[in-house]
Amino acid sequence: MSDSINTDLATDTSLNEALDRANEWYNNNWSSDLVLSDWWQKLGTSGWAFPAWPHKYGGQGLPSSIARRVVADRMQREVFGPRTGIATFLAAPTIMTHGTHEQKERFLPGIVTGRDVWCQLFSEPGAGSDLSSLQTRAVRDGDEWIITGQKVWTSGAHFAKYGILIARTDPDVPKHKGLTYFLIDMQQPGIDVRPLREMTGESAFNEVFLTEARVHDDNRLGDLGQGWAVAMTTLSHERDSNNPGVGGGGGTLFSNPDVTTTVEHFRSIQHTEVDAFSFATSGGITDVLNDLVKEFKCGNDPVIRQRLMKLHSMRETQKWTAQRAKANARAGATPGPETSTLKLQSSLTGRVVRDLGFDIIGAYGMLLGKDAPAHGLFHKFALFVQATSIAGGSDEVQRNIIGERALGLPKEPDDSRDKPFRELRVGTQKTQS
Predict the structure, then answer these.
(1) How far apart are the first and last CA of the chain?
(2) What count of other Cβ atoms lies within 10 Å of the Cβ of residue 220?
(3) Alpha helices (runs of H) in 30-63, residue ranges in sequence order
(4) Among 296, 285, 313, 309, which Cα is nearest to 359's?
C-alpha cells in the first residue's frame, strides 16, 4: 500500500474520530435555551470553538483540513458558532506567536469564549499603505507608556474592550525600526472613538483619537522597537481571505438573549439590516449571485455561462493558493508572499463578481435598498467591494511584496529607509519631537 493511501486512510480515521468526539460533546451540551454568553463560554472552554487551535490555547489541536470539516458539520447541525472577528483572526494568532506566557494566559481565554471584543489600531490619516510612516507616539513613563496620536478605519472600535496597536517609540531610528506593538485597553480615558460614514451609508469604521492614553509595559507584545516584525504576523493573517476567524458571531449584542432568540434575530435581519462590511466578508455573495442568475433566467446565456466559469476557475485558484499557504504554515514557515497572492486574488474576484452581477440585473442596478434585487444585498456588496483592494494593504503593496520576495526583483528606490524618522516628512506634516 502506497504512502499516499496510508496517509489518506489515517486522515479519514482522524476525521471520523474528530467528528465523533465533536458530535458527542454537542449532543451533551447544546441547548437552544442557553443564554448566548453562557453558550459561548461552554463552547470556548470545550476546545470546539476553534478546533484547529492548539490545546493549550483553547483548541483541539486538529489539522486545519479536519477542523474545517468539523466546523462545517457543526453548521449543518444549526449549532450557533463562536463569536469571531478581529479578536480571533488577528489578535489571537499574533498573541500566540509573539506573546509571553502571562499574556497568553490573560488574553486568550476572553477571546476564545467570546467575552472580549478587539479592534485593530494600525492605519492613520498619513500612514495607510505606507504603514511604517505612522506618527502615533508612545513615550515611556515608568512602567507605563503614554500614547498620543490618531488612528483611522478602525472597525469595531466603538464596542471593543481591547485594541492591537502599533506606535512609534523611537523617532531617532529609521521608520521601520522605531515601532513597538501594544495590547491596549480601549475603555479608558484618553481614547475618543468617532464613527466614519461610508459611501454604503453605514458606519462600520471609526477614527480613534488617543490623547495621553496609557498602556502598561506588561502589555507590550514583542521586544521594544520590534513592532514591525510583530505587525507582519498580524497582516499576514489579515490578508488571508480564507482565514476561518472571519465573520459570524457578531460584534455587539442587542441584549444577552437565549440562543434561539439570537438565531431568529440574525435570520430576520439577513435581508434587511445586515451591514455591508459583514456581508462582504461573510462569503454570502456566492449564494446571492446564484440567486440572481436564477431570478433573471440567464443561466443558459453563453456569455454569462462563460463568465461564471471564469469566476469558478478564479475561486479554484484561490483555494489552491490557500492550501499552499496553510501547508507552509503547518511546516512552521513564516507566512510569505502567498498571502499577498491570495489577497490580490480575493480583491480581483470581488470586482469580477460586482461587474458580472450588474450585467445580470441590468437596469435594476439603478435601484438601491430593499426594492433592489436580492433585497439590496448585492448592492451592499458592490458598494463595499472597492475596500478589499485597500484594506489589509493595497493591491499595489501586495504586488511589491510578490515582486520582491517571490520574484527577487529589486526594491523600489526609497531614501527614507535609512534616515531617522524624525528627519522625514510624512503625510502632510513633519513629525515633532
Answers:
(1) 69
(2) 21
(3) 36-46
(4) 296
What is the torsional sign of CA 92, 152, 218, 107?
Answer: negative
Q: Which three cell numbers stand for residue 247?
A: 465573520
CB 21 within 8 A of CB 72: no
* Residue 402 · residue 155 · CB < 8 Å: no
The CATH number fitting domain 101-231, selected from 2.40.110.10, 3.40.50.720, 3.40.930.10, 3.30.465.10: 2.40.110.10
Which helix H or strand E contains 157, and what residues bound it?
Answer: none
CA distance 428 to 159: 30
Query: Which range among 208-212, 239-243, 258-262, 273-277 has the greatest average pLDDT?
Result: 208-212
Q: Please, what sign has the CA dihedral across residues 426, 430, 432, 433? A: positive
- State which amino acid sits at residue 260: T
CA–CA separation, 364 and 105 (whole Å): 53
What is 279-340 written as a DSSP string? Answer: HHTTTTHHHHHHHHHHHTT-TT-HHHHHHHHHHHHHHHHHHHHHHHHHHHHHTTPPP-THHH
Q: Which of 156, 182, 177 is nearest to 234 (CA)?
A: 182
Residue with cell 514583542: 222
Which amino acid is located at 8 in the chain? D
Q: What is the per-residue pLDDT across 408-424, written as a single tens digit (0 to 9) for each?
A: 999 888 777 788 998 88
Whole-number pLDDT of residue 263: 56
Cell 514591525 found at: 228
Strands 179-185 and 205-216 come out as: unpaired
Summarize pLDDT for 165-175 with one digit per residue, the tens: 999 999 999 99
pLDDT band, very low/low/confident/very high, at 29 (cuts 50, 70, 90): very high
φ, ψ for residue 9, nearest 5 deg: -65, -40
**Which amino acids are annotated catalytic?**
238
Q: What pTM was computed for the model?
A: 0.79
Domain boundaries, the chain: 10-82, 101-231, 259-391
